[in-house]
Amino acid sequence: MGNRDTEEKRTEIAELGEFGLIRELTAPFTVKNKETVLGAGDDAAVLLPCPSCEEYTLLTTDLLLEGIHFDLTYFPLKHLGYKAVVIGCSDIYAMNGTPLQMTLSIGVSAKFSVEQLQEVYEGVRAACDDYGIDLVGGDTSASLTGLTLSVTVTGKVDRQKIVYRSGAKLHDLICITGDLGAAYMGLHLLEREKRALKGVKDPHPHFEGYEYLLRRQLKPSARREVIEELASADIVPTAMIDLSDGLASDLLHICKQSHCGARIYLDRLPIARETYQLAEELHADPVVAALNGGDDHELLFTVPLSLQEQIMHVGGIEVIGHITAKETGVALTTPDGSDIPITAQGHTETPKG
Amino acid sequence: MGNRDTEEKRTEIAELGEFGLIRELTAPFTVKNKETVLGAGDDAAVLLPCPSCEEYTLLTTDLLLEGIHFDLTYFPLKHLGYKAVVIGCSDIYAMNGTPLQMTLSIGVSAKFSVEQLQEVYEGVRAACDDYGIDLVGGDTSASLTGLTLSVTVTGKVDRQKIVYRSGAKLHDLICITGDLGAAYMGLHLLEREKRALKGVKDPHPHFEGYEYLLRRQLKPSARREVIEELASADIVPTAMIDLSDGLASDLLHICKQSHCGARIYLDRLPIARETYQLAEELHADPVVAALNGGDDHELLFTVPLSLQEQIMHVGGIEVIGHITAKETGVALTTPDGSDIPITAQGHTETPKG
After folding, report:
1. Confidence (pLDDT) at B347
2. Which of A235, B112, B151, B250 is buried deepest, with most CB atoms within 10 A?
3. A with B: how many residue pairs have Cβ under 8 Å apart?
């Protein structure tokens, strides 16, 4: 009947990687409508509802699947609902925008109760309140196995102040909010305790001293306050991206789309004390966590060198390097002055919180 | 760790039904932004990007899960991609709007190849071309089992011409596009052949004479041409809804939201010859298929009685009844003049194509 003869040629999805796959699949599509300013390729799509609008409409969507993006052994349903909204809002902030509305579709198997779904929605509501957005649609549907969340977030941004990944210029400063690798280490901690306590009745996981890492994984924030502070200081970044795939991968996105290189400095990378501490305990490298750990939902952005003084006065931001010519590539400079090239590597989907 | 203590009280999702569940979950949410004109409760959310816009932005989202919404034993991947877009576009047309953009997120297990995903995207592209919309985002992600599609479609509609479910008035004519129950009977045919050919190598299903029913299930259309013809004729319906849950359920939505009753006539229901024929073969009632079969993606709408003459000149539309006072309820009148009350019944999720 339907799909029997379709497997004559078989390319494994893993061969292409996440970004290669999306490129391959979407290459044949062309834009038809004048209302579409930018389709795929940035943190959110950019739409112009009418020619006289002073603001663009932003649109971003994310799919969260049980067993891939979250593990309900340790991920509280309320936090899951909260995080799903944060992920979408972070994409809107990464365009220098303001999130406004969201839709949520949930696929849910019979093992879940109404009360459990209410917990998910409680988290969604808390996030809607924290980020000032309206839930405007979506639905729930049966599923054969597990929990699926699909979140779409819309937003707005002044047409003169939109920030793409593609606007970084030579000598621009590379800035980052918050710290790196904590969400990733939080995930490792949760996974460790899950393994250690497997089959144990009434388990008591050991999280003492690492509450910060857990919070970064289980209840992340989107950087609303940074976007607002930049606006107050009248600073418009030249390029920006949400750090969801890890600094290395996301910096490469900016450099590729801005046709430039970058130099970042190891001793400038903001890494929390707890991240160092747990990395030591687990015999892991905190710098690898900082570079390749996903889920931070910090903002990586560039500003003109002339704004160095001003950017220092905005709280919670570190300058970690600068934009270079494309030919010099993208590299991490260690304290002894040697350069480690940063090259593409797909975002690892497992384990993920 | 996470969700152990959350099951103290347990209400089964089935106890509330699809619509009751959504009401329960979304009741605590309130609208905060002036840009949000209407949240949940119609075919699409209604947004006003800026006060000077002459058009509203529309937003609708759907989640399609393997084993619940489609069965890949007989559902070709290309058609699945096509149908996912049609479902979203139909929601936009049901607001009297024009679809413009879409995002697609896919969750896919390792059993799928790149070539199979390309088939899904081919169908999406064909639908984007047929309905004039742009693919502007989304992603693919690993999944543990099966295929998940999440589609969000945006659109626009003149602020003066938007049509809600809530606008039907006493004596309005109830109109319907196309015919009813064919998609549902197509699904039954596919399920019958699936059962009959289970375990058969090189199966040859018997579909002769029922190609129309298959097409209605596997490659449905959204009623773009009707919306365009209504616009040409300068007719703005008073209320409208996409027929996705079956005529009975969707007519009840209009009556509930418009605070009115309705009388529809059995001998006016448009039912295709093939629908009758297969129903007879399967000893099923074609009227039940017409009233309760989902997936038709026709438009159900109301127009003022004064437009009776004009609406007759628009092709592909049947007038099946009229709006009555709320107190008279919603009923189907049979040819012998007796009234059968139409009461709420949840949309059945299984079997579904």
Report:
1. 41
2. B151
3. 341
